[in-house]
Design brief:
Number of strands: 7
Strand content: 15-25%
Helix content: 25-40%
Low-confidence stretches: none
Mean pLDDT: 90
Number of helices: 6
Radius of gyration: 23 Å
Order of helices and strands: HHEHEEEEHEEHH
Strand order of the largest sheet: 1-2-3-4-5
């Protein structure tokens, strides 16, 4: 007869309990994993569409809208040329790519049809005050004018840096150009009131009380979008030829 008061019994019982709980949690994780992956994918789809000012509704969930509007996606290099490999643009880790030299980056492009024409959506990634910030920027087919933008963050301060996620902030980028009259890439500055650039460089107002996060957005845009310069200029060239 087993002595339930012995140390051996206690150890065996505890070990079996750990195994049973571990196996159960593993099975639950495996069962829920597909739903988790799909939810994360839909959140990315939502962010991409938000840059193009397209938002899900009860009648049109995000996965349906994405399939309706995003009609192509591909990867380019810093020379603006398509990269023909098996990498899915949707799966490219932008946080890892921005660590590489521009010439070595994989640069995803999402082509979206909207009621205002075709838009080219590019991902951006950078650093805020407390953690990473990221987003998507949609361009008109002239390769210069921003149509819309969406920004998100991991842990910026509510009411301060976290305001970058609100449309009140991102809508300021609508209609801004990222090239000057000479065709040089300038991006868009994010500045405090009273510090507006005098040279005509496009700018938006920084988040009040969120100076570090606002600067992070400015740096993120420049560092993430500059490698797309050749690609964006190719869109402008194509648009000119079409006309």
């Amino acid at each position: 007869m087993i002595n339930r008061q012995s140390n051996i019994y206690t150890v065996i019982y505890a070990a079996l309990l750990v195994i049973v709980v571990g196996v159960t949690l593993s099975l639950v994780y495996q069962a829920l994993r597909p739903s988790q992956v799909e939810n994360m994918a839909n959140d990315t789809r939502r962010q991409i569409l938000a840059a193009a000012r397209i938002y899900p509704t009860a009648d049109k969930p995000v996965n349906v809208l994405y399939d309706e509007h995003v009609r192509d996606s591909f990867i380019v290099n810093s020379s603006g040329k398509r990269i023909n490999d098996d990498t899915n643009p949707f799966d490219v880790n932008i946080g890892e790519q921005v660590k590489h030299p521009e010439s070595e980056r994989l640069l995803p492009v999402f082509v979206c049809s909207t009621e205002n024409g075709t838009k080219y959506i590019l991902p951006v990634y950078g650093a805020g005050l407390w953690g990473p910030i990221w987003g998507y920027v949609a361009f008109d087919d002239n390769g210069d004018t921003i149509y819309g933008a969406y920004f998100a963050h991991q842990g910026e301060t509510p009411g301060l840096g976290a305001e970058i996620e609100k449309r009140e902030f991102s809508s300021q980028f609508d209609g801004k150009n990222v090239f000057n009259a000479q065709g040089d890439f300038t991006s868009v500055l994010v500045v405090k009131a009273g510090r507006e650039p005098k040279d005509g460089t496009p700018y938006v107002n920084a988040v009040s009380g969120g100076t570090v996060t606002s600067t992070g957005v400015q740096n993120m845009l420049h560092n993430s979008l500059e490698p797309y310069t050749s690609f964006l200029k190719s869109l402008s060239h194509s648009d000119t030829e079409t006309r």
